[in-house]
Amino acid sequence: TAWSTFFEDTELREKIELDVERTYPEHSFFSSKYVQKHLVDLLFIYAKQHPLISYQQGMNELLAVVFLVNTVQSTLLLHKQEDITTATATATATVGESISNDSQTQSSTQSQSQSQLQLQSQTQTQTQTQTQSQSQSQLQSQQTQLSTQTQIQSPESLWEIVQDYRFIDHDTYWLFETIMNSMSKYYYNNVNNANLNATASSSSSSSSSSSSSSNTEQSKAPNKTRSRMESSTLPPITVRCKNIQSQYLRQMDPGLSQHLNSLNIEPQLYMLRWIRLFFSREFHPRDVCVVWDSIFSTYCEHRYIIVKSFNNNNNNNNNNNNKETSGNTDGLEELITANKVNEMEKQLNDHFKEVLRQQLDFRMVDYTCCAMLLFIRQHLINSDQQQCLSRVMKYPPLEDVADIVRQAYTIKKVAEKPLMKRNKKEEELRKKERDKKAKEKARTKGKAKGDDDSDTELTIESDNDEQVNSSNNNNNNNNNNSNDNDNGNSDNQRHGNNEHVSTYNFSDRWNQISRTFTHAVNTYAEDVRKTWLGDLSDQTNFHRRLQFEHALGEKMQEILDKIQATIKQRKLNEYNQSSEDQQEKEKEKETENEKEGEEEQKNKQVSHDILSPSQGDPLMNALLMEGDSPSTAPLTFSSSSSSSSTANTNANANVDKSIAELKLVKDALLGNLDESMIETWLDFKPVPLDVGSQYPNPDLNNVRPLHGPGGLPPPMSSKSAKNNASSKHPKVHQSTSDLLFPPQSTSV
Amino acid sequence: MAEEKINDNGYDHLIRITLIGDNNVGKASILKRFARNEWDAKPVGTSVAELEIKTVKVFDKTIRLHMWSIQKSTSNILNSYLRGDAIGIVYDVTNRDSFKNLHIWFTEVERYARDDAIIVLIGNKCDLVEDRQVSLNEALPYAKLHNISHIETSAKTGAGMIDLFGLFLENSVKTLQQKQNKFKNTINVEVEKQNRELPSTHAKWSCI
C-alpha cells in the first residue's frame, strides 16, 4: 500500500542519512549539509531504482569519492574561467537576467562547496586565493554558463560541456551506477541469508526462493551438511577473495600465499572491505584517486578484449548462419562505439553473458589487493596470525601509493598473459584484412576513452599497442619475432607505468565516461518528486522523455568519438611532416642512451614494416605511431590552425561541424529546442522501457517494474487514490524526511 | 578460537570476542573505549569489520583479546566470526528498533555460534537518560528468556565496561581451563593433578 511504501522509504532514508553522516567525518567537505543532502538523495534514488540491492553500507563511501572528484573537477573549471570572464563580463549583465532562479540557487550552493573544496584539493588546485565573496562566485558561475554557450570553438569548451557544474549530481549518479553494475553482486549476497530474509522486503522474492532451497537442503541433512551447505552457497565475494589469495598471490609469491593459508586467515575478512570500497578506507583520499585511476583505465581495456573475442565468436558462427551475425560484424567494422558495444551485449547468449560479467569485474581490484599484500610481505611473513590480522585490518600508511599501482600492473601482466595469448591465436585464424580493420577500429574505441589526456593514458596505449604490434608481427613474420617484440613491449610498459603514476590527472578520464545520461537522471529525480506530489498525470510522457535523453546522450558520445577520430587523423598528418625530424632526434637519443634508442629503432622498423602494405590508411598509421612516439607534442586546436596542410583544414572543418552538432545536443538537453525537430535528426523511436535489463542479477523475472505495483512511491493507480493521498498529506514537502506527522490510519 | 600457548607470542590464551548488532548502536565505540580508552563523538561508520587487540592479565595468565565488531550487512559472510569464544549482542537503549531487531541476531547466533560460547546482551548508550526508550524492566526478562547475562554500558562515559569484559574474561577463561582439563585427562592424568583449582568468585584481572 501507499502508506507502507511511504514508511519503508522514510526508514530507508533515515538509514542512509545515518551512514552518510558518518562518511569521512574528518573531512570538512563531507560534513557540510549541502553535500550530505545530495549524497542521501543519490543513494536513495539508487536504492529505489534497484530494489533488489536497495541500500547497503559501504555504498556511501564509494559515492562520496565519486562525488568529491566530480565536484573538484567542475570547480577547477570555474577557476579556469576567470581569465575569460573578464572579456565577457559586459555580455554577462544582459544574460544574467535571463538565467532562471533555479540556477542561481544552485550556484550559491556551489560556491559553498567551492570554498570547502579549496581546503580539500590543494594538491589539485592551482594556487588560488580563496577570498571570493559569495556574490562574486555567483556571478562567475553565471559567466561560465554564458561562455559554454558562446565559446564553443575552443577545445576547452568541450570540457565545459562535459564538466558543467550543474550536472555534478547526474555525472556522479551515472558513474556510481556504472560501478555498481559490476559491484552490486558483492553487496547483494547478504539477502540470501534465510534469517535476515524475515525482515527483508517482499520484493526480494528471488532471495526467498534461494533461501527456501537452502532450507530444504538443511532439513534433509540437518547436522553434518551445515558446513557443506555453506560452501556450496558461497557468496561471490568470498569466492573472489579466495581466488585472490590462493590464485593471484600464489602466482606472484607462493610463500606468502602459503603462509597466509597456513595461518588460517580468511581472505574475505580484510579483502571484503578492500574490494567493496575500492580501497577508499585504506589510503589517503588523494592516493585513493590514483588507485581508482588504474582500476578504471583497465576496465575499458577489458571491455575491449571481450568485444574482440565476441567478434571472433561471431565469425565462427558465421560459417553456420551467415545472415544473422553478418550484420553484427559489419557494424563492428564501421565503428565500435559504446552504443554498438551495448547492442552487442544485448545479443550475447547466456553463456557468453556470464563470461562477460566475470570479465567486467574490475580485475584491477584483484591485482591491487595482491599488490597490497606483497607490499607488506615483510611484515606478514614473519608474524603470527594475530599480528598478520591486525596488519591487514589496519593497513599501514604509505609514502607513495605509486609503488602499489606499479606492482599491480606487473601482476596484471603476469595474470593476463594466457588471456592475451589466446586472443592472438584466435586472431591468427581470421583473415588478415578483417583482422587489421577490426583492430584498428577497436583501437579507436579504446582510445576514445582517453584522448584528451593523452599523456596520462600511456598505460592503456602501451597495452593496446602490445596487442596490435605483436599480432601484426605474427601475421607478417610468422611468430618468429616474439622475443624482439617482448623487449620492446616491456620497455613500453615500463615507460607507460612511470608516466601513468606520475600524473594524477585521473578525473578527466572518468568524466569521459560520464558524459551521457546526466540530464536523464535529473529528470528522473524531478519526476519522482512529481509523482510524490501527484503532478505527473501522464507517465508515458516520462518514459518518452527518459528515452529521448538517452538517445541524445548516445548521439553526443558518437559525436565526441568522431571528433577524436579526426584528432587522431591530424596527429598522423603532423607526424608525417615531422617524421624526418624525429628520426634525427632519435639518433641524438642513441648517443645518450644506447639501449633505449635501439629498442625504439626496432619498434620503428617493425611499425614501418607493417605500415608499408597499408600506407593509404591514415588511422592505421596513427595507431602505430602513437606507441612509438609518445614524445610528440600534445595536440591543440591552436597549433593545428597554424599548420597549412589541406588535410588539417579538412580536419578542422570536421571538428567544427561536430562541435556545432554537439552544441545542438546540448541545447536539446537543456530544452531550448523544439524536440520534434531533433527527434528526426536522432532517428528517435520510443520503446517501452525495460528496467530489469539494467540490473545484472541473474533472476530477472522478479525485478519490480519501475512503474508497476509498488514501484514508485506511492503507487498512483487512480485519481481517488491521489485525492486520498493528498488529503492525508496536508502539506507538500520536497523531501520525505520532512514528513514527520504520524498516519491517522493504515490503509490496506 | 582459543589457542594454547605454543611459542613466545607474549600471551597464554587468545580469546576472540565478537560484537554484533544493528547499525549505529556503538559496537566499535565500546571496543575502542575498552581497548584504547578513547571515544569519538562522530565515529567513522564501520565498514565490513573492525579489529581491536588488547592484552590483559587474568590470574597469572596473559590473555590476548581479539575484539571484532561486525557490520550488519556482512554478518553472513563473516559468520565464522560468530564461532569465537564470546559474543556480545549490542542494542541501543535510545533506539527501540535496535531492541526489536534483537531476535534476528539471536537466530544468527543460535545458528552459527559454538555451544560453549559466552553470550551477553549489551545495552549501550545508557548515559543518555532522557532519550531512553528501552528500560531495564524490558531488557532483563528478555535476557532471562534467552538465558544470557545482561549488562548496560556507555562507551561515552566508560560505565559498565569493566563489568562487561570481566564477564567475558571470567567465563571464557573458565571454559578454557575446563577444556584444558578434559584434554589433559585423556592424555595424561598426572598433569591434571597439578592444575590449579578454579577460583569460584570474582577473578582478579588487570589490564597490562
Write the layout of secondary structure elements.
The complex is a heterodimer of chains A (748) and B (208).
Chain A: H1 2-21, H2 28-31, H3 33-49, H4 59-87, H5 89-98, H6 101-120, H7 134-150, H8 155-162, H9 168-188, H10 205-220, H11 225-232, H12 236-252, H13 254-262, H14 267-276, H15 285-318, H16 322-334, H17 338-347, H18 350-359, H19 363-375, H20 377-381, H21 385-393, H22 402-415, H23 417-429, H24 432-448, H25 458-477, H26 482-502, H27 507-513, H28 518-533, H29 539-592, H30 594-611, H31 618-628, H32 637-642, H33 646-670, H34 675-682, H35 719-728
Helix pairs in contact in A: 1-3, 3-4, 4-7, 4-9, 5-7, 6-7, 9-28, 12-13, 12-14, 12-19, 15-16, 15-19, 15-24, 19-22, 22-26, 23-25, 24-25, 24-29, 25-26, 25-31, 26-30, 28-29, 29-30, 29-31, 29-33, 30-31
Chain B: E1 13-21, H1 27-36, E2 49-58, E3 61-70, E4 86-92, H2 96-100, H3 102-112, E5 118-124, H4 136-145, E6 149-152, H5 161-187, H6 189-194, E7 205-207
Parallel strand pairs in B: 1-3, 1-4, 4-5, 5-6
Antiparallel strand pairs in B: 2-3, 2-7
Q: Could you characterize what this model shows?
A:
Chain B: It holds the Pfam family Ras. The complex is a heterodimer of chains A (748) and B (208). Chain A is built from 35 helices and no strands. Chain A has 748 residues and is mainly α. Chain A starts with a helix and ends in a 20-residue tail after the last helix. Residues 83-153, 190-232, 318-336, 446-522, 532-537, 595-644 and 689-748 of chain A have low confidence and may be disordered. Chain B is an alpha/beta fold. Chain B has one domain: 3-Layer(aba) Sandwich (Rossmann fold), CATH 3.40.50. Helices cover 33% and strands 24% of the residues of chain B. The longest helix of chain B has 27 residues, at 161-187. Chain A binds chain B through residues 15, 18-19, 21-26, 56-58, 60-61, 187, 189-190, 192-193, 195-196, 198-199, 230, 235, 237-238, 266, 268-269, 272-273, 276-277, 281, 384, 386, 389-390, 393-394, and chain B through 7, 9, 14, 23-24, 42-45, 47-51, 53, 64, 66, 71-81, 101, 104, 107-108, 111.
